[in-house]
Amino acid sequence: MAKDKLFGKHLLCTQDWEVDELIRALELAEDMQKERFSGKYYDVLKMRTYMMFFYNPSVRTRQSFECAATELGGHAQFLEPKSMRLKTKKTAGETVEDAAQVMARYGAGVGIRILEDKIGAYGEGQKLLEDYCKWSPAPIHSMAHDKFHPFQGLADVMGLKKHLKTPDYNFKGKKILQVWGKGALARSWCSVQESILINSRLGMDVCLAYPEGFDLDPEVIALVKANCKANDAEFEILNDVDEAYDDSVDVVYSRNWMTAGAYKGGEFDKPGEIEKSLQHTGWICDGPKMAKTNNALFIHPMPIDRGNEVSDDVASGPRSIVYDVAENRLHVQKAVMALTMGNLP
Ligand code: CP
Asked: What is the pTM of this model?
């Protein structure tokens, strides 16, 4: 058993890792899927604990990280800020400097989720994770924060390689339509921004479509443009849903996201965001729109807002890969935990 050269590396966004490091994690994830119950990886985290720090609720992330720790021979501890005494803008308490250094004395790594109403302005989640990275000797992983969702991006591309039937993680010549969908959940930008970053990094053409007023982070868009330029791939932004769907599209990723005006006076205006969102009645991914594509795959990180972001027949249809991608969360998380925290056979 040996430590990998990625041992100790933080993961807040896939863009922070080299492409060959991402591919190393993805190839390990594929082997971990094949060897899931063979015993090959049972001792990778033997007697080690992973700290999971959730400001927001989760189905997939919590369950898949707990299963990942178990399947690697370790344990995952569930933590909520409400059960701790942390310093916030409104309350006295323990600083990140202290909390991060203490947690790293117990755990082999720390995952943090902070989204939507648990911050007062876009960027605060990223800042919090960067502070943990600064003070923690153990690796810090984003389990979804306001800007990025790296494990979702890795799970997505693992699913796309399998279902697009590409021989490797070079997606040159394929095109993803990253399209806004109306919704009643007022989502953060993390999954969508991670998707356009990692897919453009792997050579995919990217069409980003949303109604006027739903622009994403301009710094992320600049990175996506640079990724596309480096790969000689196409990038476009459209504000017309009907124009977005055509026969050049190989993958449709329909997802709701908030506007840049979602934070007002340090609060997340969820009712206002939902009201704005539901006005755009035509922005749903449905059968007639999918019929215009190149028999595109449908991908979504879940939870799905059925009837808003996407119709049932598409979400549950033969081209939907949502459950495979959800399963991949387990495999990619095991791989990154093994590389950054564990001992590999
Ligand atoms: N995709 C995702 O992160 O799902 P959860 O919010 O259920 O964890």
From this structure: 0.97
